[in-house]
Amino acid sequence: MRVAEFLEENGALVVVLGSLAIVMVASLRSSLLPDGWMALVSGREIVAHGLPSHETLTVWAHGRRWVDQQWLAQLLLYGLWRGGGLKLALFAHAAMSVGAFAAAAVLARRLGATARSTTWISLPVLVTFYPGASVMRTQSFAYPLFVAVFWLLVTDARKPSRRVFAALPLLVVWANLHGSVLLGAALVSLAGLVGLAGLLASRSRRGLWHAVVLTFAPWLCVLVSPYALHLPAYYENVLRGSGFSRFVTEWAPTTLTLVTVPLYLLMVGGVWLLGRTRNRLSAFEKLAFLTTAVLAFQTVRDIVWFGLVALVLLPRLLDEVIPSVPEPRRLNRLLAACICGGVVIAVVGVATNPASWFERDFPAAAADAAAAAAGPHGRVLATSPFADWLLWTHPELAGRVAFDARFELLTPVQLERAARFLGRSGAWARTANPYRVLVLGTQDDSQLRAALLRSGLARVVHVDRNVLVLRHTG
């Protein structure tokens, strides 16, 4: 009976959440990208050799200090692979992404928002959340932690409690999973600063230590890692970007496109709702919304965090400006039951596919051709989508691949050299001279392929729908 009542009241929201789950599961074959392969390779290295300290996998960064801040997430992903192959790792990623989205919706309801308003806000949030959250990588482990920490902070802003200090051990775990822990620490510290400002305004000392701990302790939690002494320099390098945006679009600033229209609607609509409802949100909630909005403008990769914050905060504001209407309870129950059945069918249907189905964009024949062409000593220059995949499928290539997706290990000069090669500018052909094999994308690198073949610098060894293997003849 309780399940039926829940579906009747929240049917439309369940449909949205179920739709996200179905799309996430159905698209798992497209969820494997460089970050996922990199995590698996790194996890395997940790199991075989312990925590790394210096780079040994690539040529360009060989011997350079490797601060593997995400070591725990890499180890967990590799453990999932050992337990059930790529299929299990991908399903775990999907569960964490969908679970975080669902938890944010539940938090919005717990804070007093109606199911209808939560559903309306969840629609544009889903569109902004999905592109980043659909990719299997170490960041997948951060989504549930982000919602958990934000849950503690929002409830503490409404009614202060010692329970908020549970955010600190969560930050410690997060600090060894993904670099987005800096955002989590910043939000906890922001909550502490808001508390200190309130105490100064009221000239009260009650709750002073509460605010002080929240302000300063998060930054100590961020450093609880085997790489503690080297993390400040690592974070500085990553936050500065060092030209990453030329290779990874997620590091580029967010621009207005058809894909980002829902994001802009959430931002503009959210600011309008903040002005219209004024005191409906706490000072911390308002600042958290504005802070994550600014970050979402700065880099594409921060859009997911703003989406989760918007899903938690905006439904309550929407309730203030639109009239309430009765829920179509019987229709809600029917639709929710259908979408739940659809989720089960999608999970079973995708889970029955063979492992090769999930690796469609990374055919084993192409990797074998590249390794065979390289021989026992030849080096390989692969564009970043394929470098870590080659290292994963052919571990004997370790130390012979030019560079991979860990751009933070490269110097600005090396990043510029890679950009010139990909853009065919300057002395771009010289970059390929030390490498016997070149691995490119058939579509993304079509112009580079044409230039190499036209100049006689390479000949085709293997080609399929997505990967091209060339033998360097220069």
Write the layout of secondary structure elements.
Layout: H1 2-26, H2 34-49, H3 71-110, H4 115-133, H5 142-158, H6 167-174, H7 181-202, H8 208-221, H9 231-240, H10 261-277, H11 283-298, H12 303-321, H13 329-351, H14 355-358, H15 364-374, E1 380-382, H16 384-393, H17 412-423, E2 437-441, H18 446-454, E3 458-463, E4 467-472
Parallel strand pairs: 1-2
Antiparallel strand pairs: 2-4, 3-4
Briefly summarize what is shown.
The chain is 62% helix and 4% strand.
Give a quick set of tags describing it.
4-stranded mixed β-sheet, globular, 474 residues, 18 helices, 4 strands, mainly alpha
**How much of the polypeptide forms β-strand, as a percent range?**
under 5%
Low-confidence stretches: none
For the CA atoms, what is the radius of gyration?
A: 24 Å
How widely separated are the two ends?
Answer: 74 Å
For the report, how would you describe the main beta sheet?
A: 4 strands, mixed
Question: What's the average pLDDT?
Answer: 91
- Choose one word for the global shape: globular
Query: Please, how many helices?
Result: 18
Tell me the number of strands: 4
> Element order, helices and strands?
HHHHHHHHHHHHHHHEHHEHEE
**Helicity, as a percent range:** 55-70%
By secondary-structure content and strand pairing, the structural class works out as mainly alpha
